[in-house]
Write the structure tokens for this entry.
Amino acid sequence: MTDAGFPRTKPKAKHFPHAFRTGDIVRAAVPARLKNAGVHVGRMSAKAKGGFTIYTSRGKVTGIGKNYCRILQYADGYGYAYAKQIDAYGQASPAQNKEYINGILH
């Protein structure tokens, strides 16, 4: 505090016990024995306790552990999405005519 009673610095930033940050694009491969089994790809919301929420194209998946996640792209302030390219006739182009399952191209 200064003599006038104002703070001299900013509050300390919140530190997480993992390398993930909110907004990262991650791929989570969750084993079959757990509740949210499967492969999930999407934007991640980091929690201080270590569990994550992943927003995929099919909805929200909660309670994913850090051990099952891999960062595909770090958060850079922009929003990204997977989409099929549609031509003037409403058909998917042949190069883009592939199947997406849980946000993963197969």
About this structure: The chain is about 0% helix and 35% strand. Strands lie at 25-30, 38-46, 52-56, 59-64, 69-73, 100-101, 104-105. The mean pLDDT is 78. The two ends are 58 Å apart (CA to CA).
